[in-house]
Write a structure and sequence with these properties.
Length: about 140
C-alpha cells in the first residue's frame, strides 16, 4: 500500500464522517418540525457507511487504470422508523381533534452523542493523515542524503 493509497483511505473516512455530522446537525435543526412537504413530522435520518473494498480483480487491472480501493463511503441515508412523539398542545396548528401534535422522532441527546462520535472519528482520521504526511516527508528526506 502506497502513501497515496493511505491518504485516499483517510480522506474517504473524513468525508464520510463530515457527512455524518451534517446529517446529525440537520436532525437537531428539525427537532420541532411538525410538518414537512409530505405532510407528516420530520423523520430522523441516519447515515449508513459501506466499505470501499478493493477486489482481487481490481488489483489485476493494468497500471494505466486507477483503482479506487479501500476506505469508506456513504452507501445511503435512511429514515428512522421509530414512532413520532405525541405532545399535548391544543393551540398548535397541527394538533389533531384530541389536541395532540405529533413531534419528530429526533432525540437531541442521541444526536449530540452521534455528533461527538463523528467529530472524534474525524479528528482521529485527521491525526492519521498528519502521520501519513509526516512519513511522506521523511521518505523525501531520505532521498536527499
Amino acid at each position: 500500500m502506497s502513501l497515496l493509497d493511505s491518504m485516499n483511505i483517510v480522506g474517504s473516512a473524513m468525508t464520510a464522517e463530515r457527512f455524518r455530522m451534517d446529517i446529525a446537525l440537520q436532525n437537531i435543526a428539525n427537532v420541532n418540525t411538525t410538518r414537512t412537504a409530505d405532510g407528516e413530522p420530520y423523520r430522523r435520518r441516519q447515515v449508513v457507511f459501506q466499505e470501499r473494498a478493493i477486489t482481487f480483480e481490481d488489483s489485476l487491472r493494468t497500471a494505466s487504470a486507477q483503482v479506487e480501493g479501500g476506505g469508506v463511503r456513504v452507501s445511503e441515508v435512511v429514515e428512522s422508523d421509530r414512532d413520532f412523539v405525541p405532545v399535548y398542545d391544543p393551540s398548535h396548528p397541527d394538533a389533531d381533534e384530541d389536541g395532540y401534535v405529533l413531534m419528530p422522532n429526533v432525540d437531541t441527546t442521541e444526536e449530540r452523542i452521534d455528533l461527538m462520535a463523528a467529530s472524534n472519528a474525524y479528528e482521529a482520521n485527521l491525526t492519521a493523515l498528519s502521520l501519513v504526511k509526516s512519513l511522506a516527508l521523511r521518505a523525501l528526506e531520505i532521498g536527499q542524503n
